[in-house]
């Protein structure tokens, strides 16, 4: 079938559900690779940080990424077939160099990417026994 790029709104559970349904039909219920590449940001120094905007940023960069991965786990598990040698599913999480850089006047975005990077590490540990490889920083 090849590669298809499909977009959705990561902060909308209905959008995620609709995308899962579409992918389920296209792939007959199995997904080999999920690539999470999500991001939004704004520059504000800590002194003037708008907490509501920062929360929206975390909704996109952290919770949207987690919700999308959770929604696709059944398809990834269906593909992985634990016990079959060499058969794996892969989740690729594209975070940002901002998860390791300290950039002045840009506090909320890197903080959200650090959270995403930590989720990436935890996913790697939790999904490995299920034969799902997690790749990312």
UniProtKB/TrEMBL annotation:
Keywords: NADP, Oxidoreductase. The keyword Oxidoreductase applies. InterPro entries: NAD(P)-bd_dom_sf, Sc_DH/Rdtase_CS, SDR_fam. Pfam families: adh_short (PF00106). GO terms for biological process: phosphatidic acid biosynthetic process; triglyceride catabolic process. GO terms for molecular function: acylglycerone-phosphate reductase (NADP+) activity; triacylglycerol lipase activity. It comes from the Eukaryota. PANTHER family: NADPH-DEPENDENT 1-ACYLDIHYDROXYACETONE PHOSPHATE REDUCTASE. This is NAD(P)-binding protein. It comes from Didymella exigua CBS 183.55.
């Amino acid at each position: 079938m090849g590669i298809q790029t499909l977009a959705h709104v990561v902060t909308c559970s209905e959008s995620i559900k609709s995308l899962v349904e579409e992918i389920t039909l296209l792939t007959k219920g199995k997904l080999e690779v999920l690539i999470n590449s999500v991001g939004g940001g704004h520059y504000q120094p800590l002194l003037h940080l708008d907490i509501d905007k920062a929360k929206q940023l975390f909704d996109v960069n952290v919770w949207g990424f987690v919700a999308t991965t959770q929604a696709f786990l059944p398809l990834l598990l269906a593909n992985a077939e634990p016990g079959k040698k060499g058969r794996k599913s892969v989740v690729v999480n594209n975070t940002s160099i901002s998860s390791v850089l300290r950039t002045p006047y840009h506090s909320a975005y890197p903080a959200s990417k650090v959270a995403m990077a930590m989720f990436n590490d935890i996913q790697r540990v939790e999904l490995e026994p299920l034969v799902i490889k997690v790749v990312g920083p």
